[in-house]
Structure formats: structure tokens, C-alpha cells
Design brief:
The complex is a heterodimer of chains A (about 350) and B (about 325). Chain A has about 350 residues and is α/β, with parallel strands linked by helices. Helix content of chain A is about 35%, strand content about 20%. The chains are: A alpha/beta (about 350), B alpha/beta (about 325).
Chain lengths: ~350, ~325
């Protein structure tokens, strides 16, 4: 069947539903999986279709629930666990890092943990220090975990389906500002390989590496840069572990430059890893020092007067490109889409 | 209790004691280079509980897991090789003493993060119930683990979903060096905590094999009759240090005379006493049992010493499970 446009949230729902239909060991667990909103629409209708045995409402007990999901996978279940904010996973982090990530290794392959952990990154509408963090480096740091952070509806569907089918624990990061974005998605069930990045804008002057929501901002910048003759190559990592460095290295070989954009803090971040890899693996190809963009090194404040200063976006991307290429691009900044504290004007809060 | 039952109990307990004693004796040679949490003094509980489990039932344990593993009939060679870090170890040397596993004996998990094994065990029960095979899981933990929040989270979930989970608390009164009096309010009551979660609990003497067995049997009968989870709490006592092969009474964290009192109530000696009260008992048979145990353990240590270490290319294997398409 041909593709049609659906939202990122609908793509997650479709992957989940199709995988649940194809394998009755797949189950969904989490606080709110059967609530009226259905985890921002991503689980809507599944409780009615599959019932409480497959769509399991849970107590407000993140650590316990993660352990229970892991335990059930040891005897054959394939749970998908959701936390409605990344921050709640700090309560289940012990189980994710000490348990899920270690099982296959510490049993020499006798037992594996086939779970998907869906974590949602908040942003905007004053959510503040404990509801807006983007903590992917603490998951990507750990061998034994796989980490995906798709930016498009079609990647979200294909990667989630692959994650559900993967015999390893997979952490999926979903940016709250992506759930309502549209894109072409095949209605068929398909799986997309975890650990393959995508060149989403071809260019020759500068390599921009990013993931999740910041891909949207990077693409906005790339289109505007093209109008002034700057050819930016934008790489959407889609997966943070395993990291597809080959694609990055080839691009650096072409452009000789590198700009990384983290969704969270750049200190000890995904960009830090990529810049380090570039320094050790393709130092000679780099013509200019790379730049790492990311959220300012502060807790994220609630008030939009300050929060808007925290996030990287169109203007800071243009500034960085300007700095790396040694070109004055300041006139572009006038064209900046003013990012307020909502993903688009139709949104009237709260999350 | 028949003579055969008592003989079974004695044999199992003597086996566990002898394995743990051998580990303690040999540890000084520095070939077993991983932490060991020995169960000497606590042998009756796992033997009693295992006697009430079917072979298809699962066991999930924590850091002090040797006795749970052995009592479920798991492989001794694989355990000793694991302690030696050798390739025939149950986790090919990658887990060590705190990660014993035996797929055939359904020793499904042992993890030393206190409390984490409880929710994992609860999840095993959740998965088993969904599988519909009627299997259950015994989840072993100590008194310290009941202080973790995840204990309450797990009780709630097991009660909510009527899971085939048998929670087994071995209360040995110490979490490492810290006594239960220093950790728990004097009027804290585990039975009431269980009641508050809708979980029936059974409490008794974990050094008396007959009492422990009857209590475990009652708990399992209750689970089979009602389809609900249950908790067993046994009082017992660890003789040696928390981690390692040595006595540690000289450190002064135990009450004066406490160790001696508990050693006077040795579960193995108690079991032997009851066995010898049977007219059928035969000292020659007991001697043969002890010799057989000793030979089996000796063979395991010989095997572990001869067994090669894993090769260096094993370092990067099994970080991830392979995708089966």
C-alpha cells in the first residue's frame, strides 16, 4: 500500500498495534497506557482492542514496574514500558542499567531481556527543571542497551517495530514536540534497522549531526542556508547506540567540518562523543574545529523568558555555521521562526 | 514426617553445608576471585522451600544465592567453575558468585542489587501466569530487602494481579554489619505490611527443618487453593562474615553470645538429631552420604581447577543478544 501522512504519535500507535497483532507476547505496560489521552495518543484504543492482559495499567511504581517487565521477559514476554517523562526513568534506571543491560552478558547468553522502554522528553509550556530534561547520554553510555531517538513518523514506526522485535533492551526517546508532526508512513508493518543514520539534507560545506527534535531545527536552518549558498549536510542519527559513525565520517570527508546538536546538555553529551570520535578517527579530514551545540549548561527554567534562552535553535545553528565557515550569515537570523514555548501556534497548553 | 523425608532433608542440608565449607576452606588460595556470600547456618530454609516446589517452578535469588541454587538441584560444577571464573561456569565466568543461573533447574536469576530481585521475581510470576502453565516462582531475599521501596511495589503488584509468587524472606537480623534494630522501628511488623497489601504471610523458625517445611507447604497450599501470592518469613542466622570465608564475631557488631546461641541451634545438627531418633537410622548410611557428598564436591573443585579460563575473544561476546529474523 502507498504511504499516507500521519503523525509521529499515530506512527508509534500503528507500530505498537501491528506488532501486538503479530505476536501475542508483546504487551504494553505503564501508568496511563489506557488513559483517555493514551500517552499523547500513542496507545489510544489499544486497551479496548487488546484488553487488560495485553495493555497493562500499572501502579505508580517505576522501579517495581521496570523490574516486573524485565522479569516477565525472562519467561518469554515482550513488554513495552512507557514513562511519560524521561525523568521518571531515574526511578527505574537501576533496573535498566544494572539489570536489563547486563542480563545477556552476565548469563553468557542464556537469558536476554527483550523490552522496549519508551521515554518522553518534555519541552515548553513552563515544564521546568524536572519535566524538560533530555537525558539520552546516560542511556547511550551503557553497553548492553540500544538507544533510538527518531525524528520522523516513518522512522518512529520502523524503529519501534524493530525495537519490539529486538532481543535486547531498547530505550526509545520521543520528543514531546514530535508527536504532532506529520510525515509519510507506509501503512504496512515494516522494521527499520537500529544503528543506521540517515542523511536528511545533502550538502558539501558543513556536516550537521543531530537527532530527535533538533533534526527539525537543523533542517529549517539547512533550507535557509541553501538560499544564501551554504550547502549543509544534515545527518539524523536515528539511533544513538549503536552509533553509525561511518556515515558521519564520510560526510566529514566531504565537508571537512562538523557541527553537532544535542537535544540536551552538550557537556559529556552525544555531540561530545561524536566530536571525540572525529578527533581520533578522522582528524586529518577536519579543516576547522568542530562546534557542539546543546541546551545551556543550567537546569531548564520554567519561565519562557529564560527557557527560550536555553535551547539551541535556528539562530544558534546559523551562528555556529557562520563561525565554522568564517562567513557572515547574520542577515539570515532575521528570518528566524520565533520559537516560543509551544511547538506550534495551535497549541494552547498544558502538556 | 517419614524417615525418608528426614533423610532427604539431611542429605540436602549436609550437601549445601559441605559446599559452602569447602569454598570457605579453599578461598585462601585466591583462585576464587569473586565475592562470596556463604549460607552456613541458613541451610534449612532453601531445602524446605525447594521440597515444596516442582522442578518446573522457578527460583529468583539475590547475593546470598548458593544455597538456593543448590537446593533447587542446579549444577554444582557450573557453580564452582563460575566462582573460579572458568569457561564451564554457569555464566562462563562473566557473572561470578552473585549471578548463578541454571536453565534446567529453573534457577532463573540471582542479582545482588538488594531489592531488585524482588520485582524481577514478581515479573517472572507475571510472565508465568500469562503463560498459563501453572508454574510459580520462589523469590528469596533478606530482611534488609524488605526495607527497599520496591518490596512494597512488588507486593502490591503481586496482590493486584494474583500472581504465583512465593516471597521468601530469610531474616538473619543483619544487613551486612547493621542490625535489624538499627534499621527498623521496634514496632515495624512484616505480617501487617503484608496484610496491608492483601498478601497472606507465614512466619516461623528457619533453623528447624520440619517446621520450615510445614510452613512452606502451608504457604504453597494456600497459593494453589486461592491463586494468590504468599510470603514466608523465616528467622535464621548467618555464621560467617557477610561476604567472605571468615568468622567475624571479634568485630563486635553482633551481640555477645548471639553467635553461640545460634550455633547451638544449628539447622544441620538439629536435623541430624531428628534423623537419629528414627529407629531405621543407620550410621553407616549417613557416613556413605557424607562421603558421596565429599567426593562430588572434590570432583567439582578438581574440574574447576583444570577447566580453562574463557579465551580473550569472549570479552566482547554476548554484550547483545543476536536478532533472530
Amino acid at each position: 500500500m502507498s504511504s499516507r501522512e500521519i503523525t509521529y504519535g499515530e506512527a508509534i500507535l500503528e507500530a505498537t498495534r501491528q506488532m501486538m497483532l503479530s505476536d501475542d507476547r508483546v504487551m504494553l505496560m505503564g501508568l496511563g497506557v489506557s488513559d483517555p489521552g493514551g500517552i499523547f495518543g500513542t496507545t489510544k484504543g489499544l486497551f479496548d482492542e487488546f484488553g487488560p492482559d495485553r495493555v497493562v495499567e500499572t501502579p505508580t511504581a517505576e522501579s517495581g514496574v521496570m523490574g516486573i517487565a524485565i522479569g516477565s521477559s525472562l519467561v518469554g514476554m515482550k513488554p513495552i514500558v512507557t514513562h511519560q517523562r524521561v525523568e521518571f526513568s531515574l526511578l527505574s534506571y537501576e533496573q535498566i542499567v544494572n539489570q536489563a543491560a547486563k542480563w545477556n552478558y552476565m548469563t553468557a547468553g542464556k537469558k536476554y531481556v527483550q523490552i522496549v522502554v519508551r521515554l518522553i522528553i518534555g519541552r515548553g509550556w513552563g515544564q521546568g527543571p524536572q519535566h524538560s530534561q533530555s537525558l539520552e547520554p546516560i542511556f547511550a553510555h551503557v553497553p548492553g542497551l540500544k538507544v533510538i531517538a527518531p525524528s520522523s513518523p516513518s522512522d518512529a514506526k520502523g524503529l519501534l517495530a524493530a525495537a519490539i522485535n529486538d532481543p535486547n533492551p531498547v530505550v526509545m526517546l520521543e520528543h514531546r514536540w514530535l508527536h504532532q508532526t506529520y510525515g509519510e508512513v507506509s501503512p504496512d508493518l515494516y522494521q527499520q534497522e537500529i544503528g543506521r543514520s540517515k542523511i536528511v539534507h545533502v550538502g558539501t560545506d558543513i556536516t550537521i549531526v543531530t537527532y530527535s527534535y533538533m533534526v527539525i531545527e537543523a533542517l529549517r536552518a539547512a533550507r535557509e542556508l541553501a538560499n544564501v549558498g551554504v550547502s549543509a549536510e544534515v545527518i539524523d542519527l536515528t539511533s544513538l547506540r549503536p552509533l553509525d559513525f561511518d556515515t558521519i565520517e564520510k560526510s566529514i570527508g566531504k565537508t571537512g567540518t562538523l557541527l553537532t546538536i544535542d537535544n540536551g546538555w552538550s557537556t559529556y553529551g552525544i555531540g561530545a562523543e561524536i566530536v571525540a570520535r572525529a578527533a581520533s578517527d578522522c582528524f586529518d579530514a577536519l579543516k576547522k574545529p568542530p562546534i557542539r551545540l546543546g541546551v545551556a549548561d543550567v537546569p531548564i527554567p520554567s519561565t519562557r523568558a529564560l527557557a527560550n534562552l536555553v535551547y539551541p535553535g535556528f539562530n544558534s545553528i546559523v551562528d555556529s555555521v557562520s563561525s565554522i565557515l568564517g562567513r557572515d550569515l547574520s542577515r539570515l537570523k532575521q528570518k528566524s521562526i520565533c520559537v516560543e514555548d509551544v511547538p506550534d501556534k495551535s497549541f494552547t497548553g498544558p502538556f | 514426617m517419614t524417615y525418608e523425608q528426614m533423610l532427604h532433608f539431611y542429605t540436602e542440608m549436609a550437601y549445601i553445608r559441605a559446599v559452602e565449607q569447602k569454598i570457605a576452606d579453599e578461598y585462601k588460595h585466591q583462585e576464587m576471585r569473586c565475592p562470596v556470600h556463604l549460607s552456613i547456618g541458613q541451610e534449612a530454609v532453601p531445602v524446605a522451600v525447594s521440597k515444596c516446589l516442582k522442578s518446573s517452578d522457578h527460583v529468583v535469588s539475590a547475593h546470598r544465592s548458593h544455597a538456593h541454587y543448590l537446593a533447587k538441584g542446579a549444577d554444582l560444577n557450573a557453580m564452582i567453575c563460575e566462582l573460579f571464573g572458568k569457561s564451564d561456569g554457569c555464566a562462563a565466568g562473566k557473572g561470578g558468585s552473585m549471578h548463578l543461573i541454571d536453565m534446567e533447574a529453573n534457577v532463573t536469576a540471582a542479582v545482588p542489587i538488594v531489592g531488585s530481585s524482588i520485582s524481577i521475581g514478581t515479573g517472572v510470576a507475571f510472565g508465568l501466569k500469562k503463560g498459563g502453565s501453572g508454574q510459580k516462582v520462589a523469590i528469596y531475599f533478606g530482611d534488609g530487602a524488605t526495607e527497599e521501596g520496591v518490596f512494597a511495589e512488588s507486593l502490591d503488584f503481586a496482590s493486584l494481579h494474583n500472581l504465583p509468587a512465593l516471597f521468601v524472606c530469610e531474616n538473619n537480623f543483619y544487613s551486612v554489619y547493621t542490625s535489624i534494630e538499627q534499621r527498623q522501628a521496634s514496632n515495624r511488623n512484616l505480617e501487617k505490611i503484608c496484610q496491608g497489601h492483601g498478601i497472606k504471610s507465614f512466619h516461623g523458625d528457619g533453623n528447624n527443618i520440619v517446621e520450615a517445611f510445614e510452613l512452606a507447604r502451608n504457604a504453597v497450599s494456600y497459593m494453589e487453593d486461592t491463586g494468590k501470592a504468599a510470603l514466608l518469613e523465616f528467622t535464621t542466622y548467618r555464621w560467617l562474615e557477610h561476604c567472605g570465608p571468615n568468622w567475624d564475631d571479634h568485630l563486635g557488631y553482633r551481640k555477645a553470645g548471639e553467635l553461640k546461641n545460634w550455633m547451638d541451634r544449628c539447622p544441620l545438627t538439629h536435623c541430624l538429631g531428628m534423623l537419629c531418633a528414627f529407629p531405621e537410622h543407620d550410621n553407616g548410611e549417613l557416613l556413605r552420604i557424607d562421603e558421596k557428598i565429599s567426593a562430588k564436591i572434590s570432583d567439582s573443585f578438581k574440574h574447576a581447577r583444570k577447566n580453562p579460563f574463557p579465551s580473550s575473544d569472549e570479552l566482547f561476546s554476548d554484550v547483545y543478544a543476536e536478532i533472530q529474523l
